[in-house]
C-alpha cells in the first residue's frame, strides 16, 4: 500500500522538464522560489541523517541547517546579480564565459558527477532503504533493489525528460507530516524539559562485549555526550568543533547554495532580483525548521528506544539494523513506525518514499544530461541525437550499479552517521570549487590558468585526505581507524577551511604571475562590473560559433533523413521497442540548443527602491533571528 501510494503521488507531481521550467519567461514570484529552494535542499537523506546524528550526539548537527540562513543571503545579494547579468543558465557556462577555454567547465562536470554518485544517489538509496527496512522488515539490499525497480519503471513510463525536481507542494506535505510527528514525539516523551532530563540517561541495556578478544566497549561509546544540547562545542575535543561549525560549514554551504546548479537554477527563474532576494529570505526562515522537525525527534527516538537506536554491541546492532557500527540512522523511521497512529503512519511513509523516488529520478536525469552533454559530446562531437539518448540511459544504469556497490561504505562511514558522511566527502571536494567561484565573482584579476591550477591543486589536496580515509575506513568508537593521525587526525571541517585558503592562495599566485583578462571580456561577469552597459566580447565566442554551425549541419542532416522515414517505419518490432525505451525517434531535443536563446536577452537587475528597502530590512531581521537562535542554543 505504501509503495502504491508512493507511485501514485509521484505520477501526480512530476510533470515539467528542466528546460521548460527555465524558458517560462523567468516569471516565478518569490514564494515558489523560496519554497522550491527549500524543496531542492531537503530530501529523505536529511530525515535519516539529521535525526540519526541528533540521536547519536545531540543538536550540533543543526548548525549545518542554521548556517544556511546567512549563506542564502550571499546567494541573493552577491552571486545571483552576477549570474543574471552574465546571461547564463548553467554554472559551467558561467565559468566558460568568465575564463574561456573548456578544461574548467569539463572538470566541474566530472566532479559534479562524482559528488552526485557518492553523496546524493547512494545516500538517497540508503536512506530510502532504511525506511523500507523499518516499515516492512526487509534486508537492506532487497529494499534498495525494490526502490530502484520502482524508480526505473516510473522513469521509463514517465520518460526521463519529463521528470521534474521534487515538487514544492510535496515538501509542504512532508513539513506537515514531520510537524505532526514532532508533536506526537514530544507528547510521548513528556515535553522539552523531559527530553533535557532524560536524554543523558538514554542508555542501551546491552553494553557488554560478546567477543572480548576482538573488541572492548568503553562507557564513552554508549553514554550520551555531556554537550548534547550545545551548538558550539570544544574546538579540540568536540565532535563538531565550533570554529569548524562557523567557518567550515560556511565554506561547504557557500559551494552548495551559491554555485550548485539546482539551487541557482531556482533563482534564475525568478521574475526580478527583488523576487530572488525575497525567495532567499523565505528559504532562510524555512531552514530554521529542520532542527525542530528532524534533530529533536532523532534525540527523542533515542530516549524512547535506547536499545535499538542507541545500541552499541556490534552483534546486537547487526540484528537491529543490519550494520555493526551503530543504528542511529534508524532513529526517524523507527519513530514514524512506532509513534504515529496507523493511518498517518502509512501516509508519512508514502510521502517519504515519493519524495525519495522523485529526487532519485531527477538526479538520474541531471547526471545523465551532464554526462551526455558535457562529456560524451567531447568524446564524440559527431554523435547523433539518438546516440546521445541511448548513452544517457546506459549511463544511468552505470551510476546505479556504482551507487549500489558504494552502499556498504555509506553504511559503515562516520560511525554509521549518514549526515557526517555526506559533509565529510563534500568537505574534501567542494572547497576548491567554492574558492574559484568566489574569486571569479569578486576578483577581476583572476584568470583561467589561476582558476584551473587552483582547482587541480585543491583536488590533489582533497584526494590526499579522502583516499586514505576510505582506504583505512573512518573507524568507530569500538574499532578505531588505522589511518595515520597526520592524515586523518584533522577534523573534516577544519580541513575544509584549510583547503579553501590553500586553493585561494594558489589561484591568486598563478593569476598574478600570468597575463590578466582585459575588461572588455569581463563586463557584467564580475561583481564590480555588474552594472556595466558596455558590450562584452565573450571569451567563448569561437566555441559558441562552432556549436551553432554544428547544430545547423545537424538540422540539415535531419531534413535529409526525413526522406528515409518510410524505411524507418518498416523496422523490426524489437528495434522499435528498444527505440521507444531509449526515447529515440520521439520529439525529444538537446537541452543545449536552448542556451543561446536564453542568453540573448540580458535581465535587468534594477529594483524598485521601496521593495529593495523592504527586502533589505527583512534580511536584517532574519539575521537577527538567526543570531538569537545560535545564541540561545550555543
Low-confidence stretches: 5-10, 12-24, 158-167, 586-600
Largest sheet: none
Overall mean pLDDT: 81
Order of helices and strands: HHHHHHHHHHHHHHHHHHHHHHHHHHHHHH
Q: How many β-strands, per DSSP?
A: 0
Amount of beta strand: under 5%
Alpha-carbon distance between the two ends: 43 Å
Count the DSSP helices: 30
Percentage of residues in helical conformation: 55-70%
Computed structural class: mainly alpha
Shape: globular
Radius of gyration (Å): 25 Å
Task: Describe this entry's structure for a reader.
- By secondary structure, this protein is mainly alpha-helical.
- The chain contains 30 helices and no strands.
- Residues 5-10, 12-24, 158-167 and 586-600 have low confidence and may be disordered.
Keywords:
634 residues, mainly alpha, 30 helices, 0% strand
Q: What's the arrangement of secondary structure elements?
A:
Blueprint: H1 2-13, H2 18-22, H3 30-41, H4 44-57, H5 63-66, H6 68-86, H7 91-99, H8 103-136, H9 140-158, H10 168-189, H11 192-199, H12 242-259, H13 261-268, H14 273-286, H15 289-304, H16 306-309, H17 314-321, H18 331-339, H19 342-379, H20 385-412, H21 418-429, H22 431-442, H23 448-472, H24 485-488, H25 492-512, H26 541-562, H27 565-569, H28 573-581, H29 594-600, H30 609-633
Helix pairs in contact: 1-19, 3-10, 3-13, 3-14, 4-8, 4-15, 6-12, 6-14, 7-8, 8-9, 8-19, 8-20, 8-21, 9-19, 10-15, 10-19, 12-22, 12-25, 14-30, 15-18, 18-19, 19-20, 21-23, 21-25, 22-23, 22-25, 23-25
Amino acid at each position: 500500500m505504501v509503495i502504491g501510494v508512493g507511485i501514485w503521488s509521484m505520477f501526480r507531481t512530476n510533470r515539467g522538464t528542466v528546460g521548460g521550467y527555465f524558458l517560462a519567461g523567468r516569471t516565478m514570484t518569490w514564494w515558489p522560489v523560496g519554497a522550491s529552494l527549500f524543496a531542492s535542499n531537503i530530501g529523505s537523506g536529511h530525515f535519516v541523517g539529521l535525526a540519526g546524528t541528533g540521536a547519536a550526539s545531540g543538536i550540533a548537527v543543526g548548525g549545518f541547517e542554521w548556517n544556511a540562513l546567512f549563506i542564502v543571503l550571499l546567494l541573493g545579494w552577491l552571486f545571483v546579480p552576477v549570474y543574471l547579468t552574465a546571461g547564463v543558465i548553467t554554472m559551467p557556462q558561467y565559468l566558460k564565459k568568465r575564463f574561456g577555454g573548456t578544461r574548467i567547465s569539463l572538470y566541474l562536470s566530472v566532479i559534479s558527477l562524482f559528488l552526485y554518485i557518492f553523496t546524493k544517489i547512494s545516500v538517497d538509496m540508503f536512506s530510502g532503504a532504511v525506511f523500507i527496512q523499518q516499515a516492512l522488515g526487509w534486508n537492506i539490499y532487497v529494499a534498495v533493489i525494490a526502490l530502484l525497480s520502482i524508480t526505473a519503471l516510473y522513469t521509463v513510463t514517465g520518460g526521463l525528460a519529463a521528470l521534474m525536481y521534487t515538487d514544492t507542494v510535496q515538501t509542504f506535505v512532508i513539513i506537515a507530516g514531520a510537524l505532526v510527528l514532532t508533536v506526537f514525539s514530544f507528547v510521548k516523551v513528556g515535553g522539552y524539559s523531559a527530553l533535557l532530563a532524560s536524554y543523558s540517561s538514554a542508555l542501551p541495556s546491552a553494553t557488554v562485549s560478546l567477543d572480548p578478544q576482538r573488541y572492548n566497549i568503553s562507557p564513552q561509546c554508549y553514554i550520551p555526550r555531556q554537550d548534547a544540547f550545545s551548538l558550539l562545542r570544544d574546538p579540540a575535543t568536540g565532535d563538531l568543533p565550533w570554529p569548524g561549525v562557523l567557518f567550515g560549514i560556511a565554506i561547504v554551504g557557500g559551494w552548495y547554495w551559491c554555485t550548485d546548479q539546482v539551487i541557482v537554477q531556482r533563482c534564475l527563474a525568478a521574475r526580478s532580483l527583488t523576487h530572488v532576494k525575497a525567495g532567499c529570505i523565505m528559504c532562510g526562515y524555512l531552514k530554521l525548521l529542520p532542527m525542530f522537525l528532524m534533530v529533536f525527534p532523532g534525540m527523542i527516538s533515542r530516549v524512547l528506544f535506547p536499545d535499538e537506536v542507541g545500541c552499541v554491541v556490534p552483534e546486537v546492532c547487526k540484528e537491529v539494523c543490519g550494520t555493526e557500527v551503530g543504528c542511529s540512522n534508524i532513529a526517524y523511521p523507527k519513530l514514524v513506525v512506532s509513534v504515529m497512529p496507523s493511518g498517518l503512519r502509512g501516509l508519512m511513509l508514502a510521502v517519504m518514499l515519493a519524495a525519495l523516488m522523485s529526487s532519485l529520478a531527477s538526479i538520474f536525469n541531471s547526471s545523465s544530461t551532464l554526462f551526455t552533454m558535457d562529456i560524451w559530446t567531447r568524446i564524440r562531437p559527431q554523435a547523433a541525437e539518438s546516440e546521445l539518448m541511448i548513452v544517457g540511459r546506459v549511463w544511468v544504469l552505470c551510476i546505479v550499479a556504482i551507487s549500489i556497490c558504494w552502499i556498504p561504505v555509506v553504511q559503515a562511514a562516520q560511525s554509521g552517521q549518514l549526515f557526517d558522511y555526506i559533509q565529510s566527502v563534500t568537505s574534501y571536494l567542494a572547497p576548491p570549487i567554492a574558492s574559484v567561484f568566489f574569486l571569479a565573482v569578486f576578483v577581476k584579476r583572476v584568470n583561467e590558468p589561476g582558476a584551473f591550477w587552483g582547482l587541480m591543486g585543491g583536488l590533489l589536496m582533497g584526494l590526499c585526505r579522502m583516499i586514505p580515509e576510505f582506504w583505512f575506513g573512518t573507524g568507530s568508537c569500538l574499532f578505531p581507524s588505522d589511518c595515520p593521525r597526520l592524515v586523518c587526525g584533522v577534523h573534516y571541517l577544519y580541513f575544509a577551511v584549510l583547503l579553501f585558503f590553500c586553493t585561494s592562495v594558489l589561484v591568486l599566485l598563478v593569476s598574478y604571475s600570468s597575463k590578466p583578462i582585459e575588461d572588455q571580456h569581463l563586463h557584467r561577469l564580475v561583481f564590480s562590473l555588474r552594472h556595466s552597459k558596455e558590450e562584452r566580447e565573450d571569451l567563448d565566442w569561437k566555441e559558441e560559433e562552432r556549436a551553432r554551425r554544428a547544430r545547423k549541419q545537424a538540422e540539415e542532416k535531419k531534413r535529409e533523413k526525413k526522406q528515409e522515414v518510410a524505411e524507418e517505419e518498416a523496422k523490426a518490432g524489437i528495434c522499435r521497442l528498444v527505440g521507444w525505451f531509449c526515447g529515440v525517434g520521439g520529439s525529444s531535443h538537446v537541452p543545449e540548443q536552448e542556451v543561446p536563446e536564453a542568453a540573448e536577452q540580458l535581465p535587468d537587475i534594477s529594483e524598485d527602491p521601496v521593495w529593495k528597502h523592504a527586502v533589505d530590512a527583512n534580511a536584517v531581521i532574519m539575521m537577527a533571528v538567526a543570531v538569537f537562535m545560535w545564541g540561545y542554543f550555543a
